[in-house]
Amino acid sequence: xxxxxxxxxxxxxxxxxxxxxxxxxxxxxxxxxxxxxxxxxxxxxxxxxxxxxxxxxxxxxxxxx
Length: 65
Prior knowledge:
The chain is built from three helices and no strands. It is mostly helical. The termini are far apart. The protein has one domain (6-31, 41-64). The model has no long low-confidence stretch (mean pLDDT 80).
């Protein structure tokens, strides 16, 4: 637990409002970049290729006989 005097509370609130005002001004001055992330996802058929190239093991067929 800590003690907060009225004077300290006023200082903290004043600092928070100044900081908030400064960050709003900084955000307003930011450069907006062009979006260049369209059509960057390249879908592949890796699973189908894997299934096609997968070696078939016949030991289960031997066990079941």
